[in-house]
Write a structure and sequence with these properties.
206 residues, alpha+beta, 6 helices, 26% helix
């Protein structure tokens, strides 16, 4: 399937331990609104209800989705797809929203075959990678994460990166599964937990 994703996910602790049954089922709506307004202080923000991550992964351009839990923060904002200074500001803000947490930022598009991934620890950027099927490796900064290593093997052994010798979507979903959620984003574990069912608050920007 083709995924479109514009997601930042922070967790205080190992993802597999944070994202499991027992995660606060009622995220803090006040904290979600505070984070949303902090991202867009000049905009008029209207809360328009609750939904789940499955619906929120690729918001309309005039909305965003936020979930603030005791040990996790989720943010879906299509402006991350621009990969510009504003996208980096949004990513940096999400990474700093939960003190001491680790945060992954994943951007995929179902039509444009590419993946942008950023990884933070304690609010500090540790990894920034952007790859596309046609252009190969565009950004490769910071120490590679364990889930990446099998994908880089061919390039490290001398295979050209254009065209990219691995699928960007598969690469991004592997990073999300290992480093953001501790399981595949669309995988319901034996414990019954499915990341796509995580609740978020919906906001409209004007």
């Amino acid at each position: 399937m083709g995924w479109s994703v514009a997601l930042a996910c922070a967790s205080a602790g190992e993802p597999a331990e944070v994202f499991r049954p027992g995660l606060d089922p009622d995220p803090d709506p006040g904290a979600a609104a505070t984070l949303a307004r902090g991202l867009y202080p000049a905009a008029t923000l209207t809360e328009t209800g609750d939904t789940v991550l499955d619906f929120a992964l690729w918001p309309y351009e005039d909305e965003l989705f936020v979930g603030v839990f005791d040990r996790a923060v989720l943010l879906c904002d299509r402006r991350l797809f621009c990969l510009d200074d504003d996208a980096r500001r949004i990513a940096d803000t999400a990474a700093a929203a939960l003190p001491g947490a680790r945060c992954g930022v994943l951007v995929l598009h179902s039509v444009i075959s590419g993946c942008w991934f950023r990884w933070y620890e304690g609010g500090e950027l540790r990894r920034d990678v952007f790859v596309t099927a046609e252009d190969g490796v565009v950004v490769d900064q910071g120490e590679r994460l364990p889930a990446e290593l099998p994908y880089w093997k061919a390039i490290d052994e001398g295979t050209p990166d254009v065209p990219l010798p691995f699928d960007p979507e598969e690469f991004g979903l592997a990073l999300a599964g290992t480093h953001m959620f501790g399981r595949g984003i669309a995988d319901r574990g034996d414990d019954g937990f499915l990341p796509l069912e995580l609740p978020l608050r919906r906001f409209k920007l004007c």
